[in-house]
Amino acid sequence: MSVISLLGLFAAIAVLILLIYKGMHSLMVAVISCLILIFTSGLDVWTTYVGGPNGSFTASMMGFMQNFILMFAIGAVLGEFLSKSGFAFSIALKLSDLFGTKHAVLIVVVSTMILAYGGVSMFVIVFAVYPIAAVVFKRANITKNLLPGCICLGAGTFVMTALPGSPTTINVVATQYLGTTIWAAPVLGTILAVLMFVLGTLYLLREEKKYREKGEGFEAGENEYIQDITEETRNNAPNFVLSVLPVIIIFAFNVIGTKLGLNATYAVCLGMAASIVYIWLVAHKRIESVFACLNKGCTNSIGAIINTSAIIGFGGVVKMTPAFGAITNFALNLPFAPIISAVLATGILAGVTTSSTGGLTLFLEMLGAEFLAKGINPEVMHRLCAIASGTLDSLPHSGPNLTLCMVIGVTMKNAYKHMGMITCVLPTIAVIVGVILAAVGVC
């Protein structure tokens, strides 16, 4: 492997993160960063971008879009229907009345957590939760810069990797290689899930206090209208039970669909489509223009999926470089105690592939059986490697981060401080604590 290829990979990732942090569109950033990989790894320019025997930038992009474009589109349309029907406003009103505006952060985290534990993807959750969270945050006068961190805590940390029984992709992938179940290491997983939830919530509450002390409050985005809670809007709000049913429908379709063997994405799409139909039937008089909801939702979804797919495309080119193979070999041959090597390797691979699922799958495919042969408890390995996969996968250029910022209407520069703390630092702390607890027999 050429040293130049390795330096080129690090330079490309650094440029990718820097330009996204500066606010450049991820598609152009990915194209520029791929150019660095091409020149430092001796790849052919045209075939690397548009097609070759070992894959390409556009092939990786299109592969992601092929699998998820319907989910993005239906999710964005659902978000519009929830907003325009007043259902999101009704849910936010009830939750903030029940728990108080001082618990706005917790309301968003728990609402997100419930959807995530139902198996709903982060890409869908942001569209469904944002209309509700925006009203809650506006009423509490909390800056939107904190909102991506709240959603990340509810959907991208303890539910995604640690909480036993969670039907997330990461939890399922581990079972396929280790012979475990999604309930693996229930005591260890529960302890680490509670740890992340508590530390994350305390962090977000501290940051909320800091923003208040600086006088920074809620600001709606350009061309964004969020209802104020007044006596009139309160009286005109839809019934809460009718309003919360779309969320329950999504949850039910996902749980029942996956139990029946349906593809998880298919089950979620069916649930969201059913929710849209339900909202239209129950609240069509409240929606000024169904076509406007459909058009705006589809438009928003295209922007979101291109943002995410561009980074997936960059990841596809990374895998074509000699440096990727060298880093993979390094990660898989770390000279530490087996469980420490396993979690470190998983974290490194997740960072290089910019994917928690990709990093975990790559590690388990190549060395899962070998590490089990070293005597590691498969349930402990399942839980700790799953959590480790959710550490370095969430650098500023990760797809979910880009989608969150775009949908919520905040910049990476303003929001990533909180997302990084929640999705990188917290899981890292959990992994360290998990290794210590596993060493004394907690499982």
Describe the model:
- Helix content is 77%, strand content 0%.
- With 443 residues, it is mainly alpha-helical.
- Helix 7 (122-140) packs parallel to helix 20 (399-408).
- The two termini are 41 Å apart.
- The model has no long low-confidence stretch (mean pLDDT 86).
Features:
443 residues; mainly alpha
List the helices and strands and how they pair.
Elements: H1 3-22, H2 26-41, H3 45-50, H4 57-84, H5 87-99, H6 104-117, H7 122-140, H8 147-155, H9 158-162, H10 169-178, H11 186-214, H12 231-236, H13 240-259, H14 264-283, H15 290-318, H16 322-332, H17 338-353, H18 356-373, H19 378-389, H20 399-408, H21 412-439
Helix pairs in contact: 1-2, 1-16, 2-15, 4-7, 4-14, 4-15, 5-7, 5-13, 6-7, 6-8, 7-8, 7-20, 8-11, 8-21, 10-18, 10-19, 11-21, 13-14, 15-20, 16-17, 17-18, 17-19, 18-19, 19-21
Percent of residues in helical segments? over 70%
Briefly note the structural class of the backbone.
Answer: mainly alpha
| SSE succession | HHHHHHHHHHHHHHHHHHHHH
Q: List low-confidence stretches.
A: none
Short characterization:
The protein has 443 residues and is mainly alpha-helical. It is 77% helix and 0% strand.
